[in-house]
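Memo to structure team: turn this sequence into structure tokens by end of day. - J.P.
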Amino acid sequence: MKRVCLTVLAVVAVFGLGLNHPVFGITGETALSEIQKRYDSTADLEATFVQEYVGKVVRVPQKGEGQVYFKKKGMMRWDYRVPNQKLISNGQTLWYYQPEENQVFVSDLAKVL
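Reply from structure team:
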């Protein structure tokens, strides 16, 4: 939900959509309503991802790629092909699995985010 709200705010800021000013034949209020309807009718999401991370201390870029799955009520699963690892959450607990290390880290999701 936070990501949807941030996306909408970014669109409003970039395109200068006022809630009552028509742009492209619709108002911002209508656009928000349509986005909310789409979100409400979506139960889950699946996507392929590619990411690059540069740490603050060790400034070496690290790349990751794989498949991500989201389900309402805060559930998510990140299946990385590169590096081989998994992040899984049921909305309350986060599991970070590293098969090569034969280990799992379990955290309270609220403390991680």
